[in-house]
């Protein structure tokens, strides 16, 4: 039926606005900000209904690691469709889910031995929070009912994940519905004191975390963090030393370490997993986004046999982990994930990313001297430019001025998808981007910044 309807941008946008409600969007904006209908995608490019294309510099909300419709991933999905689409994972198993679990255990930090599947990143966080709480309950530690997260943290928008999120835009409205966690000061290097290095800042913040644990360890199930980069908070970055110290503190005080690598996993930070840069193994590792190459919804929580054994008992003990999703371990999504991990095995992805990251750093370097740029920061192929009204004092532009939206609009005019976080222009491109495309990406961003800071 749809093939007989008009397929121009305007026609598709009109149909959309009659029936759809979009995520993380004030729909009123679309009275003046046109929706962008995408009809085809390939590699780094998105193509709209009017024949224009846009370089996807943000990997479609950080999911698309090897570009859109990568031939190897497409072939794997087509093959899987010929055998099995989906079967519930309660009481059943299938080869893609089994193979993927085996491969994840092989490539993740040592000591992670069990894989629990879910549908998306927020659901993975829910699993980890519940599993940590339930573990302590099974051990008779009923007083452990709280979690510690970092200031500025973001872990998702379901109620449990939102409870350990500290971004007011997402949290404030729903505060009466949420758990009450403790928030430790972030080791964000942007907040370092004058003359303090990123490593020094991390150590100082570890001291503050220690003080928090000294008071609250007996009631704390776990500390949850985004290793190396707090993405939705504005690509806030910290030194790997914080992860080392965090692991030691969790061991000392008897609390779990939950690593949310939903956005930073699968090569984004320069290593396959961010925790590798500190040579630490968390008690729970949450994965999603790049796990399936951006093809289909899938997430996984990995944990240790120690945790698993705390739930392994006769049925009448009541110790079973009570959590399920209808599409847990979906065969198609698992097959896409297997094809994604195959690319990491067969190609020098991380080495190539290091070259691209160095090129991106060189292109961004001139922005450090811009009068409205307070910081240019980068970890692997994640980079961010902090726009401010006053460089010396770091006075921010008022949020209601929506300076970042000006960058977004300019980018679309120049066939570039940039989606700033407030006044922070960031880059998280697919790994198939070329140096020449990085040049174009940064050039458009620089132009957009000039438009954005103009009074």
Query: What would you call the structural class?
Result: alpha/beta
- CATH superfamily name of the largest domain? Type I PLP-dependent aspartate aminotransferase-like (Major domain)
- The number of domains is 2
Provide the CATH topology of the largest domain. Aspartate Aminotransferase, domain 2
The general outline is globular
CATH class of the largest domain: Alpha Beta
CATH architecture of the largest domain: 3-Layer(aba) Sandwich
Gyration radius, rounded: 22 Å
How would a textbook summarize the main sheet?
A: 7 strands, mixed
Distance between the termini: 48 Å
Structural write-up:
- This protein is an alpha/beta fold and 455 residues long.
- The protein has 2 domains: 36-69 and 349-453, Aspartate Aminotransferase, domain 1, CATH 3.90.1150; 74-346, Type I PLP-dependent aspartate aminotransferase-like (Major domain) (Aspartate Aminotransferase, domain 2), CATH 3.40.640.
- Helix content is 36%, strand content 15%.
- It is built from 14 helices and 16 strands.
- The chain has helices at 9-19, 59-62, 71-81, 95-107, 121-138, 159-163, 168-171, 198-216, 241-253, 305-309, 331-346, 349-364, 403-413, 435-453, and strands at 38-42, 45-48, 53-56, 114-118, 146-150, 182-184, 220-225, 229-230, 236-237, 256-260, 284-287, 299-303, 373-379, 382-387, 416-417, 424-427.
- A hairpin with a 2-residue loop joins strand 13 (373-379) and strand 14.
- The chain is globular, with a radius of gyration of 22 Å.
């Amino acid at each position: 039926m749809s093939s007989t309807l008009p397929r121009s941008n305007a026609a598709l946008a009109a149909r959309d606005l009659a029936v759809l409600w979009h995520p993380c969007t004030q729909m009123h904006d679309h009275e003046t900000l046109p929706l962008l209908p995408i009809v085809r995608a390939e590699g780094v490019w998105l193509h709209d209904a009017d024949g224009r294309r846009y370089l996807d510099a943000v990997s479609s909300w950080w999911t698309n690691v090897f570009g859109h419709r990568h031939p190897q991933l497409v072939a794997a999905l087509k093959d899987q469709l010929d055998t099995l689409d989906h079967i519930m994972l309660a009481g059943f198993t299938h080869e893609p889910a089994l193979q993927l679990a085996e491969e994840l255990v092989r490539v993740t930090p040592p000591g992670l031995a069990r894989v629990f599947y879910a549908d998306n990143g927020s659901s993975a966080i829910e699993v980890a929070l519940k599993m940590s709480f339930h573990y302590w309950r099974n051990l008779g530690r009923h007083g452990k009912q709280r979690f510690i997260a970092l200031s500025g943290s973001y872990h998702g928008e379901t109620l449990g994940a939102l409870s350990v999120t500290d971004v007011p835009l997402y949290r404030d409205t729903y505060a009466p519905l949420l758990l009450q966690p403790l928030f430790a000061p972030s080791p964000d290097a942007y907040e370092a004191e004058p003359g303090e290095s990123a490593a020094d800042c991390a150590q100082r913040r570890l001291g503050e975390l220690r003080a928090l644990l000294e008071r609250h360890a007996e009631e704390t199930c776990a500390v949850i963090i985004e290793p190396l980069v707090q993405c939705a908070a504005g690509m806030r970055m910290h030194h790997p030393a914080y992860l080392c110290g965090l692991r030691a503190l969790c061991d000392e005080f008897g609390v779990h370490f939950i690593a949310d690598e939903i956005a930073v996993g699968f090569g984004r930070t320069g290593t396959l997993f961010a925790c590798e840069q500190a040579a630490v193994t968390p008690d729970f590792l949450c994965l999603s986004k790049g796990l399936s190459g951006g093809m289909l919804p899938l997430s996984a929580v990995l944990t240790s046999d120690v945790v698993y054994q705390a739930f392994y008992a006769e049925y009448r003990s009541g110790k079973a982990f009570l959590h399920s999703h209808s599409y847990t371990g979906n065969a198609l999504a698992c097959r896409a994930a297997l094809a994604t991990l195959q690319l990491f095995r067969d190609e020098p992805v991380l080495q190539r990313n290091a070259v691209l990251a160095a090129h991106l750093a060189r292109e961004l370097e001139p922005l450090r001297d811009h009068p409205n740029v307070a910081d240019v920061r980068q970890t692997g192929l994640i980079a961010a430019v902090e726009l401010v009204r006053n460089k010396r004092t770091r006075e921010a532009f008022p949020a209601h001025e929506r300076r970042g939206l000006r960058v977004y609009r300019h980018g679309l005019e120049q066939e570039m998808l940039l989606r700033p976080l407030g006044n922070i222009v960031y880059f998280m491109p697919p790994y198939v981007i070329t140096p020449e495309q990085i040049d174009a990406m940064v050039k458009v961003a620089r132009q957009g910044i000039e438009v954005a800071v103009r009074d």
